[in-house]
Amino acid sequence: MSVQLEEQVSTTTVGTPIDTTGASVAEVRDMSKVMFARLGRLEEGTEEYQYVRNTLIELNMALVRFAAKRFGNRADQMEDILQVGTIGLIKAVDRFDPDYGVEFVTFALPTIVGEIKRFFRDTSWAVRVPRRLQELRIDLAKATDALSAELDRAPTVGELAERLNITEEEVLEARIAANAYSAGSIDAQAGDEEDDGTAWANRIGAEDPALEGIDNLTALKPLIAHLPDRERTILSMRFGADMTQAAIGAELGISQMHVSRLLSRTLNRLRTQLLTED
């Protein structure tokens, strides 16, 4: 550390910011050592203690940005990542003891990354799931991969339970809980191998209007079975064979008008019986 920076760190007073413009990583590290030594001589809770503590946090904010780069694939959450990483840095500053014999960077980075991972673990569940099941889901995934490689097939529930030394019920419970993990937006791009940029929302099937027709047909079957033979024949020819009323009349030797009256009477009867049963 340069003599100028060393004097600045050693003599700075409460409320006076430390200018680190142009300071190298090594100089920031050395400045942190001096500040930690100073922090250790101060009484916790005093104004000067708080100032030195805050200065240490500001000096090492680059560690938070460095750790956040590991999660660059979550750019939409980067603001939250930086905030959570800062919390991890604050915890590292409060817990660090120079007597540990390690550099602050070595101590702080795992703490910062761990805080960010904890954030994802606790916020990536669509439904709140007990921590025990969250952790068991991870163990289950690891055991599934390991056994699949060993057995050259998907492991059974019993094999997973034996590997993890838990009951089969717990394996099933963890699998059900895993369904609540990381629900994606239906507006997100599907992202399959033949992706055409279509969002999941546009791939969700709508209710098939023909479903109601199936229900009606099921309910009509016993009613149609009780119709006279000629009326059943006319229904079959009109709606099954898609014949015109004139063609039906010619086939049965009756007039088109007669066919029309029979169809109308039969359909009204079926409709009345269907509505009465509902």
UniProtKB/TrEMBL annotation:
Keywords assigned by UniProt, alphabetized: DNA-binding, Sigma factor, Transcription, Transcription regulation
Residue stretches making up the RNA polymerase sigma-70 domain: 80-93
Matching InterPro entries: RNA_pol_sigma-70_dom (IPR014284), RNA_pol_sigma-B/F/G (IPR014322), RNA_pol_sigma70 (IPR000943), RNA_pol_sigma70_r2 (IPR007627), RNA_pol_sigma70_r3 (IPR007624), RNA_pol_sigma70_r4 (IPR007630), RNA_pol_sigma_r2 (IPR013325), RNA_pol_sigma_r3/r4-like (IPR013324)
Tree of life domain: Bacteria
Pfam families tied to this protein: Sigma70_r2, Sigma70_r3, Sigma70_r4
Name under which the protein is recorded: RNA polymerase sigma factor SigF
Lineage: Bacteria, Bacillati, Actinomycetota, Actinomycetes, Kitasatosporales
